Every structure is written in C-alpha cells, then in structure tokens.
Amino acid sequence: MDVLIDLGLRAVFLALTWPLTRGLLFILVALYGVGDGWPGWLSGLCGVLGLAFWAAALWRWWRDRTRGLRPR
Question: Which of 4, 43, 52, 71 could form a disulfide with 33 if both were Cys (CB 3.0 to 4.6 A apart)?
C-alpha cells in the first residue's frame, strides 16, 4: 500500500510540473468537487485555476511561435 501511495504522489507532482497537465489536474479536481458536494467557491476556484494554467500555456506557446522560437 505504501508503494501505491508513493507512486500516486509522484504522479501528481509530475503532473504539476507541466502546464497542460497541471490545468487538467485542477479541472478534474473541480469536477470531483462539484460531484462530491464541495462549496461552490472552492470548485470554481479549482476550475478557474485550471483554465488559467491552460490559457497561460497557450499564450506562451503563441508568443514563442510568433517570435520564431521553438516551443518548450
């Protein structure tokens, strides 16, 4: 059981390092919160964070592409 907890935590930390998967993780947490009966402001905050991470990653990609740089 300790191995599963360790692998789960490592997967979450790895997902938090990439902007698109970080956004997906926050969106999934928001959907879980809505289904589990969390307060609306908390689920909304997770959803907004997820969308903000996606928007920031797409903006950086677009900015680098217009400058002629390679995407990260």
Answer: 43
Using the structure block, give the residue that is written with the tokens 């969308």. 51
Rounded to an integer, what is the distance from CA 50 to the centroid of its chain?
5
Distance, CA of 16 to CA of 49 (rounded, Å):
12
- According to the model, what pLDDT value does residue 37 have? 92
d(CA 38, CA 19) in angstroms, rounded, equals: 25
Q: CA Rg, the chain, in Å?
A: 15
Instruction: Report residue 28: phi and psi, to 5°.
Output: -65, -40
Kindly report the pTM of this predicted structure. Answer: 0.71
